[in-house]
Design goal:
The complex is a heterodimer of chains A (393) and B (318).
Chain A (H helix, E strand, L loop, with lengths): L5 E11 L8 E5 L6 H10 L10 E8 L4 E9 L15 E8 H5 L5 H8 L12 E5 L10 H10 L5 E4 L6 H13 L11 E2 L13 E3 L9 E4 L10 H10 L3 H10 L8 H24 L6 H9 L10 H7 L4 H6 L12 H49 L1
Parallel strand pairs in A: 7-9, 7-10, 8-9
Antiparallel strand pairs in A: 1-2, 1-5, 1-6, 3-4, 3-8, 4-5
Chain B lengths: L9 E6 L6 H6 L1 H8 L4 E4 L2 H15 L11 E17 L6 E17 L11 H13 L2 E6 L1 H6 L3 H15 L11 E6 L5 H9 L3 E3 L7 E3 L1 H13 L9 H8 L5 E5 L22 E2 L9 E2 L9 H16 L1
Parallel strand pairs in B: 1-4, 1-5, 5-6, 6-9
Antiparallel strand pairs in B: 2-3, 3-4, 7-8, 10-11
The chains are: A alpha/beta (393), B alpha/beta (318).
C-alpha cells in the first residue's frame, strides 16, 4: 500500500442559523457540481435528531450528475455561543462531500477525513471546493470481534444499532465504524450511512449503523458495546461472519481493494459475496504459486492456518470449482509461505488472473454446451429422414 | 426490540411551525401536573424515556433554559397515571354511583421539527414520516404562536400543505372530514401583546386563587384565536381557522389559550403583578439568547392533553 497521501476535492456546505433565523437552513456552500439543493437534501435526510453532546459525526452519501459522493457531516457547537431569533442555542453542521472514486484511490478512512475536515475554516475563497490531502488508510488493529459481528449483520440489510457506548469518546466510536467497514468491501462505503450518535427518540432516522442510548421500535440488530447478550445472526450474516473470521488480516487487505461502489440491497450483496469468494480463491491460488505477505503479522497468521490437501495436478481448477458457501473457500486454501514485501497491486493482479480463469472456464463450458446441442439436432434430423423413408416404402 | 406498546396507548402529535414552543410545551407537562395537585402524574415508560423527561423538566426549572430546537421527529413515550371518576351501576333499583378509578394512559407524544411541515423542506421522506405520524395519531395538539405569526406570518403555509396531504391520504372517506380530535392551542399567553389583545376584546379575567393569574375561558379561546389571526404579518393567518374547521369535524376541535412557562411571580410577593409579569427574558440585549426568569407556572398545558386523552378513550369505549 502506498504511503503517498491522496488529494481529494471536497465540496462543502454549512448548515445552521443566523441570529435572525428561527429555522435551520443552508448558510453557505461551495459552487461545485454537488448543488446547494443536494446539500440541503442530504443534510436533512441524514439528521441524527437533536444532539445533546457535541461534536458528533455522520457519514452518508449522495449523487450528482457526474459522481457518487461520500459525505462527512460534522455537528458541532459554535466557538462562541450562537442563539437563534427565538433565543435557542444553535448547532452548526458542516458537510463535506468527496467524489467516492477519489477516496477509493487511497483508500481513505473516515477517521482521516474527520481529522482533515474538522480543521477546515470555510472561506468564501473556497467556493470551488477544498483541495485536501488525505493519508491512505491503514488497517485498524483494534479488537475485531464486535466489528466482525456488526459487519456481517449489515449484510442482512437491516440497520445495526450499538447501545451502551454513551461514555465512549467520539474518536473511538468513529474508529469502530471504520473497523466495521474495513471488514466489508471498500466499495460499500459508497452507500453507507452511519452516525457516531443518534437521538433515541428520533426513530425515523435513516442510518444503517449507529450509536444510540435506547433501541427503537424497528427491526434493528442491536449490539451492546460491552457484549453481555447473545445476538442472533441470520443465515446470510452467519456465512459472512464465518468467512471473515479466518485469515481476517489478509481478507481485510483484499476488501480494501474492492472499491467498486456496492449497494446494501440483498441482491447486490449476494453478488458481492460471490465476487469476493472468487477473488479470494484467486488470491489463494496466487499465494500457492508465489507466496507473499502484506506485512509480518499476516505471514505469521497465514502460516498457522490449517489447510486441506489439494488433489494432485488440480490446483488451477480449484478457483472455479470451489463454489457454494463462502466458508468452502477458506477450507480449500493452500499453504502459504511468507514473502518479505508486497503491495496492493499484487492483489489486483490476482483478481485479474482469477477473473481470466473464470472467463476461460466459462468459455469451455459454453463450447461444450454448443457441441451437445449440435449433436442433438443432427440426431433429430437423421431420425426424421429415417421416418420419412420408412413411410414412403 | 423494546416491548410492544399496549393497544390502549394513545399517540398524540404536536403540530405547528418552527419555534411555536412544541418542545417547551412537553417540557412543562411534568411541572404542570405537579402544580395541579396529586391526581395526575407523568412517568417515563422506559429508562431512556424517564431520562428525557428529567432532562426536559430540569432544563426549564433548574437551568432556566428553553430546549434546543428539535431536529427530526421526537417520540416521547410517557404514561399518565391518575384517578378518574367513573359511574358504576349498583344492583337493580339502586341506580348508579360515582367511583374513583385508577387509570394509566400510555402516551406517544410526537414532537416534530417545525420546518418539516414547510413547503420548502428538501427531504420529502422526512415530511412523509411526519404526515404518517399525524395520520396514525389519536389526537393532534396544534400549536399556534401569535407572536411568530405577527412577525413572520407563515402559519397558513405550514398548515395548508399538511392538511392537503392528510386529506389526500384519507380520500377513501368521501365527504367525510378527518377523524382526529384536535386541541388548538394559542401559545405564549405570557407575552405582552397576547395579554393586551385579550384585554382589548374583554376576554380576560383573573383567578380568584393566589397568585391571581389572568386567564381566558376555554369558550372564549376561539374568539381570541380568530382575532390574533387577523393581525398576521401577511394576512393569510385568517385562513387558518376556517381551514382547520373545514378539514376536521368541528365537534372534535377544542381551543385553549396556553403558556408553557406562565407568568413571572416575585417569590417575595407571591402574587401576579400586572406591571412585572414577563417570565421570558433576554439577559444580554446584544444577544437573542432567551432565559426563564423565575419559577414556571404552566397554563393550560395539562388540559389539552387530558381533553384529547378523554375523547379518545371514550371513543374507544363506545
Amino acid at each position: 500500500m502506498s504511503d503517498k497521501p491522496v488529494q481529494v476535492t471536497a465540496e462543502w456546505a454549512l448548515w445552521g442559523k443566523e441570529p435572525r433565523d428561527v429555522e435551520y437552513r443552508l448558510l453557505r456552500s461551495s459552487s461545485g457540481p454537488f448543488s446547494a439543493r443536494s446539500f440541503e437534501e442530504l443534510i436533512t435526510r441524514y439528521s441524527p435528531g437533536t444532539l445533546d453532546t457535541l461534536p458528533q459525526v455522520s457519514v452518508a452519501w449522495g449523487t450528482s450528475s457526474r459522481d457518487t459522493y461520500l459525505a462527512m457531516i460534522i455537528h458541532r457547537t459554535p466557538r462562541q455561543g450562537l442563539y437563534d431569533a427565538s433565543g435557542r442555542k444553535v448547532v452548526l453542521t458542516y458537510c463535506f462531500c468527496v467524489p467516492f472514486r477519489e477516496l477509493a484511490a487511497g483508500p481513505v478512512s473516515y477517521r482521516a477525513m474527520y481529522d482533515a475536515f474538522r480543521q477546515q475554516r470555510l472561506l468564501a475563497a473556497d467556493e470551488a471546493g477544498l483541495k485536501v490531502d488525505l493519508p491512505v488508510m491503514s488497517l485498524p488493529d483494534q479488537d475485531r470481534g464486535m466489528p466482525m459481528l456488526a459487519a456481517s449483520l449489515l449484510l442482512t440489510n437491516l440497520p445495526v444499532c450499538i447501545l451502551g457506548a454513551d461514555r465512549v469518546d467520539l474518536g473511538t466510536r468513529l474508529a469502530f465504524i471504520d473497523s466495521v467497514m474495513a471488514l466489508l468491501p471498500y466499495g460499500m462505503r459508497a452507500t453507507l450511512s452511519a452516525s457516531t450518535w443518534t437521538n433515541s427518540i428520533f426513530e425515523e432516522h435513516k442510518f444503517r449503523l449507529f450509536f444510540t442510548s435506547a433501541e427503537r421500535e424497528a427491526k434493528d440488530h442491536v449490539l451492546s458495546w460491552n457484549p453481555d447478550r447473545v445476538v442472533p445472526v441470520s443465515h446470510e450474516g452467519d456465512g459472512y461472519l464465518h468467512w471473515i473470521s479466518t485469515n481476517t488480516r489478509s481478507k481485510m487487505d483484499l476488501l480494501a481493494t474492492r472499491t467498486r461502489p456496492h449497494d446494501f440491497r440483498v441482491l447486490d450483496i449476494g453478488q458481492m459475496v460471490r465476487e469476493l469468494q472468487d477473488a479470494w480463491q484467486g488470491l489463494s491460488q496466487y499465494e500457492a504459486d508465489k507466496p507473499y505477505s502484506l506485512d509480518g503479522s499476516r505471514s505469521a497468521e497465514t502460516r498457522q492456518q490449517p489447510t486441506l490437501p489439494l488433489p494432485a495436478g488440480d490446483q488451477e481448477g480449484m478457483a472455479v470449482e470451489a463454489g457454494g458457501a463462502v466458508g468452502t473457500a477458506v477450507a480449500a486454501r493452500p499453504t502459504v509461505k511468507a514473502r518479505p514485501k508486497a503491495t496492493l497491486t499484487i492483489t489486483r493482479e490476482v483478481q485479474a488472473v482469477a477473473s481470466l480463469r473464470s472467463h476461460r472456464y466459462a468459455k469451455r463450458a459454453h463450447a461444450a454446451t454448443g457441441l451437445a446441442v449440435k449433436l442433438a439436432m443432427v440426431m433429430i434430423v437423421v431420425a426424421g429422414l429415417v421416418l420419412v423413408l420408412a413411410t414412403v416404402r | 426490540m423494546p416491548p410492544s406498546r399496549a393497544a390502549a396507548s394513545q399517540s398524540l402529535t404536536l403540530w405547528g411551525p418552527p419555534s411555536t414552543g412544541k418542545t417547551t410545551f412537553l417540557a412543562a407537562l411534568s411541572v404542570a401536573l405537579i402544580r395541579r395537585g396529586p391526581v395526575w402524574r407523568v412517568v417515563g415508560e422506559s429508562e431512556d424515556s424517564a431520562r428525557r423527561l428529567i432532562e426536559l423538566t430540569t432544563a426549564l426549572t433548574d437551568a432556566r433554559e428553553f430546549p434546543q430546537a428539535t431536529a427530526g421527529i421526537g417520540h416521547y413515550r410517557w404514561t399518565l397515571h391518575g384517578r378518574v371518576k367513573r359511574r358504576v351501576k349498583r344492583r337493580r333499583w339502586f341506580g348508579s354511583r360515582q367511583q374513583d378509578e385508577d387509570v394509566n394512559v400510555s402516551l406517544d407524544l410526537v414532537d416534530p421539527q417545525g420546518g418539516l411541515v414547510s413547503s420548502s423542506w428538501s427531504d420529502r421522506t422526512a415530511q412523509g414520516d411526519l404526515i404518517a405520524n399525524l395520520e396514525s395519531s389519536s389526537g393532534i395538539l396544534f400549536l399556534f404562536d401569535p407572536i411568530r405569526e405577527f412577525e413572520r406570518g407563515d402559519a397558513f403555509e405550514h398548515t395548508f400543505g399538511v392538511l392537503e396531504q392528510l386529506a389526500q391520504r384519507a380520500k377513501n372517506r368521501p365527504g367525510k372530514r378527518l377523524p382526529h380530535y384536535v386541541a388548538i392551542c394559542v401559545t405564549k399567553f405570557d407575552e405582552v401583546r397576547v395579554i393586551a389583545t385579550a384585554e382589548k376584546l374583554g376576554l380576560l379575567s383573573y383567578d380568584t386563587e393566589p397568585p391571581g393569574f389572568p386567564k381566558v375561558a376555554d369558550e372564549d379561546a376561539r374568539e381570541l384565536f380568530a382575532e390574533l389571526c387577523n393581525v398576521s404579518r401577511n394576512g393569510n393567518a385568517e385562513l387558518v381557522l376556517p381551514l382547520l374547521e373545514q378539514h376536521f369535524q368541528p365537534d372534535r376541535i377544542k381551543y385553549f389559550v396556553t403558556s408553557a412557562i406562565g407568568f413571572y411571580v416575585d417569590p417575595r410577593k407571591g402574587r401576579f403583578d400586572p406591571d412585572d409579569y414577563q417570565n421570558r427574558v433576554q439577559p444580554n440585549p446584544a444577544s437573542p439568547e432567551a432565559r426563564i426568569r423565575g419559577a414556571i407556572y404552566p397554563i393550560n398545558v395539562v388540559e389539552p392533553v387530558l381533553w384529547l386523552s378523554r375523547q379518545v378513550s371514550s371513543d374507544r369505549a363506545r
